[in-house]
Design brief:
The structure is a homodimer. The relative contact order of chain A is 0.11. By secondary structure, chain A is α/β, with parallel strands linked by helices. In chain A, strand 1 (about 5-10), helix 1 (about 20-30) and strand 2 (about 30-35) form a beta-alpha-beta unit. Chain A contains 13 helices and 14 strands.
Chain lengths: ~350, ~350
C-alpha cells in the first residue's frame, strides 16, 4: 500500500461550514495533508484561518502546486448542499486523474461511474474512491458471539443527531492511543470515512444489511487493533433514523456504550413534537434493547456544553453525574480522560494497556 | 384505472414452495385471477392441487389460453432462489408484453430495466411493474402527530421472522372488513405487495428512508380506508433485521400492536445464540421503544400453533393468555375475531364500525 499524501480541494469554500470534511481530515486525519487547493485563500495556512484545524497546512492556488508539494491523492473536501459537483471542479478532478493522482470523494455524484473520469483513471492508473459507496458483498451478519475474546468494542450512541458523536468517538480513540491501547476509530459516516480513509456510510446501505455492515466494520476494525471505538448514527428515539441506530447497534454488538447528549436539549431537534425521556431512561433503554443480542452497559455520558460558559458547563456536568450515577464530561472542552477511564473500568483487561 | 384480470405464471413450479406469491395472491388477493399458466399442471385447478388456495382457478398450458380467458396482466408467481429469471420465461414475458398484457414481478431482476422488454412495452402500451422497486421520491418522515384523527393504525410485529405476521395482518383486515370497518391491509414486503397490488418492500429501501417509507405507506393506506393493518417486518431483537423493524415502527406510528409469536420458540431461528426474553418482556419492550415517538399498546398475542394438535394448541393459547394478561389466539386455526375485538377495544371508536 502506498503512503498517501493528500491535497484537499475546497476551491473558494475553505471558510464555509460545508468544508467540514476538509476541516475534519486536517484536524483528525492520520494521513499527511500536503496542501489545501483553494485559490481564494492561497498563501495562508489552514490553522491560521480555522484555529481548530491545528496544523499549518499551506493553502495553494492550483493543483500543480499541490502536486509539486508531493500530493498523490486529491480529496474533495467540501460537501455542497445537494451533493452536486460544479463543472469547474470536474475539470480539475479530470486533470488530477490524468496526472495519476487518486481521487477520494464523499459526494452524492458517484465519480467512479463517470465514463470520462473512468477512462482517464484507466489510462493513468489512478484510482477513484467514492466514500459513500458501500462494499457490494454486504450481507446479514453472522451474529453475536463470533469474534475473538481479546477484541473490545465501544460504541458512541446519542440522544439526537448532530450532537458530536463522531468527535467524541475520535477523542476517545486518541486518548486511548495516548495511554498505549491499540485503539481504532471505526467510521460509520462519510466525514468519518474521509478522516480515517475507510469505513461504511451505513445510512446509505440497503436496510436489510445495516447490521451486516456494522459487523463488517467491526471485523475490519479487528484487523487494525484490539479496542474499537465505533461511531454511532442517529438516535434510538429519532423518528427518522432510529432504524439505522438499532441495526448498527445489533450489528456492532458493543461491550460498552458512551451516551452523547447536548446539555439542556429536551426534544429531538428536527422533530420538536418528540420529547426526550430523562437521560437515565434513555441510557436504560439502550442497555435493554441490546441485552438479548449482546449485553452492554452505558459507561459514561459525553455531554456537549457548546454555548455555555465554563462555570455553567461544569455545573451541568456535575448535575448530570449525580442524576445518572455515571461519569459525565465534555471531551472537547475538558478532555476525554475521565470518560476513557470509566469506559476501561467496564471492560475486561485489554492487551497493550498500561492500567 | 382498468380492472386487472391476472394470469399467474408458475411454469412447472406451481407445487413448489417458491410459488408462495402465486398461492398468496390466489388465497388473499382481491384482483380476479383468471388462470395459472403452468403446462406441467394444465387441466387441474389451483384449489385441487393446493387446498388452502381455496379458489378453483383453472391451470392452463399456455399464455394464449390465459389471454383467451380474459387475462390482461401477467403476474410472475414464483420467487426462485437467487431471484434470477430463466430465459424461457423471459421469452414468454416478452410475448405477453407484445400482446399488451401488463407484467408484475417481485424478482430481483428488474424487468422494467431490460431494454428489449421496455421497447416492446412502449410499442404495445403495456406497463411493467417491479414490486421490489420503491418509490424514488422517498424521504425522511414528517414525524408523529401529523395525520387525521379518524385514522387508526394497527401494526403486526413479531418475535422472529417467517412466523406469519403477513397472514395475521391479512386475516385481521378481512375480519375487520367483515364487521363493516373500512379496513385496509398495508403491505411492507414483496409477497404482500403482490397480493394487494401496492406497497413498499421496506427491507430494500436505503436505511435512511425506512421510517419515511413507513409513513408513506400509512399515507397511502389513509387514502384507502380508516383502519389500517400494517404488516410488520423482522423483529425487535433480531440480530440482522431489527433496524428494519424499528424504522418501520417509528415511521408507521401504530396506535395498537399485535404481537405475533410461534408457540414454543425460545430462540431466534437463524441465530440460535440469541435467546428470546419472555413474551411479556418483549411486549413491554415494543411499547417502551414506541412511547416517546408515538405511544402504543400491545392489544393481543397472535400465536402460531402449526404442528401442535388441537388440544395442545388450545392449552398453549390459554397459558399464554394467563402469562401475558392479554387475549391470545391462532387466527389461522381458530379465526381472527377474538383478537380483532381486543384490538378494537384499545382503539377509540372507528368510523363505519358496527360495534
Amino acid at each position: 500500500v502506498k503512503t498517501e499524501r493528500l491535497a484537499i480541494l475546497t476551491e473558494g469554500l475553505f471558510l464555509d461550514h460545508h468544508a467540514k470534511t476538509a476541516h475534519g481530515v486536517i484536524r483528525y486525519g492520520q494521513r499527511e495533508v500536503v496542501a489545501v487547493v483553494d485559490s481564494a485563500h492561497a498563501g495562508r495556512t489552514a490553522s491560521a484561518l480555522i484555529p481548530f484545524c491545528v496544523k499549518p497546512v499551506p493553502i495553494v492556488a492550483s493543483l500543480q502546486e499541490a502536486v509539486d508539494a508531493g500530493a498523490n491523492c486529491l480529496l474533495i473536501g467540501v460537501a455542497p448542499t445537494g451533493g452536486k459537483l460544479p463543472q469547474s471542479w470536474l475539470t480539475l478532478i479530470a486533470e488530477a486523474i490524468e496526472q495519476g493522482l487518486d481521487v477520494e470523494s464523499g459526494l452524492h455524484t458517484i465519480l467512479s461511474e463517470d465514463p470520462q473520469l473512468k477512462d482517464r483513471a484507466e489510462a493513468s492508473g489512478a484510482s477513484i474512491r467514492d466514500l459513500r459507496q458501500a462494499p457490494t458483498d454486504l450481507d446479514v451478519p453472522r451474529g453475536p458471539g463470533k469474534r475473538r475474546d481479546s477484541l473490545k468494542v465501544v460504541h458512541s450512541v446519542g440522544t439526537d443527531v448532530a450532537i458530536g458523536k463522531k468527535t467524541v468517538t475520535i477523542e476517545l480513540t486518541r486518548a486511548a492511543q495516548a495511554v498505549g491501547d491499540k485503539a481504532v476509530f471505526v467510521p460509520t459516516g462519510q466525514t468519518g470515512i474521509a478522516i480515517a480513509g475507510w469505513g461504511i456510510a451505513v445510512d446509505h446501505v440497503v436496510s436489510d444489511y445495516v447490521a451486516g455492515a456494522g459487523e463488517w466494520l467491526v471485523d475490519e476494525g479487528a484487523r487494525r487493533g484490539d479496542l474499537l471505538f465505533v461511531e454511532g448514527q442517529g438516535a434510538l428515539f429519532h423518528p427518522a433514523y432510529s432504524g439505522v441506530t438499532l441495526g448498527l447497534l445489533h450489528g456492532v454488538c458493543p461491550d460498552v456504550l458512551v451516551l452523547t447528549h447536548r446539555a439542556g436539549s429536551a426534544r429531538i431537534g428536527s422533530y420538536p413534537q418528540v420529547e426526550l425521556p430523562p437521560l437515565t431512561e434513555i441510557a436504560a433503554e439502550y442497555e435493554r434493547i441490546c441485552s438479548p443480542v449482546h449485553p452492554t452497559k452505558v459507561a459514561a455520558i459525553a455531554l456537549s456544553t457548546v454555548g455555555l460558559d465554563e462555570d455553567t458547563a461544569r455545573g451541568v456536568i456535575d448535575e448530570t453525574e449525580k442524576e445518572c450515577g455515571l461519569i459525565c464530561d465534555d471531551v472537547v472542552r475538558f478532555g476525554a480522560d475521565r470518560i476513557l477511564r470509566a469506559v476501561r473500568a467496564e471492560l475486561p483487561p485489554v492487551e497493550g494497556t498500561d492500567v
